[in-house]
Amino acid sequence: MPQVSLFIELMYEHYKKGHLISSTFSEQIWSEIGVELYERNKTQYIVAQLKGKANRFRMLWRKFYDLVYKRTGFGWDRTTCTVTASEDRWAEWIVANPRESGLKKKGLPHFDLCTEMFSTSVATGSNTRSSAMPPIANNDDDKVNVNYPTMDSGNPLSFGTEKIPRATRGVLRKGGQSDRCGGVVFYH
């Protein structure tokens, strides 16, 4: 835990300096964090390893955050840096999430610092999706009736069934076909 704690503290220092851009640091900042880790802990990491560690901490933090803030019956113990819950609540949750049973014993130092750093770059809400998750089923059978304003009537507020010009990429060929390269062509 001391090495994890140090790594999170170093990331947090750079976060507070405004170095976190689009949920990550630049290569230069990662290199600086690597040098600082080596100077303080004599452990050397390359930038890719540091990025990987940070991503794993972010994913672990997200799991803890969801338990603590989105589920009833879970809390956070600042002393042990672990999620707390009654044995019954853990048992119920583990039955529903067997692949995550290890979270009961895992810890994450500086949960509060991680929450400050990571919550600004992590999506929240019911539509949150990981890139590792399968796509949501799409209901393409929904029919929507839309009436567009008629362009030829002189009254832009009148409605009709005429087609409105649309932009496409490409050169318009005989018969209204586009070759899909070149400039933008308008047709109806």
From TrEMBL:
<feature type="domain" description="Myb/SANT-like">
    <location>
        <begin position="5"/>
        <end position="92"/>
    </location>
</feature>
<dbReference type="Pfam" id="PF12776">
    <property type="entry name" value="Myb_DNA-bind_3"/>
</dbReference>
<dbReference type="InterPro" id="IPR045026">
    <property type="entry name" value="LIMYB"/>
</dbReference>
<dbReference type="InterPro" id="IPR024752">
    <property type="entry name" value="Myb/SANT-like_dom"/>
</dbReference>
<protein>
    <submittedName>
        <fullName>Uncharacterized protein LOC105155928</fullName>
    </submittedName>
</protein>
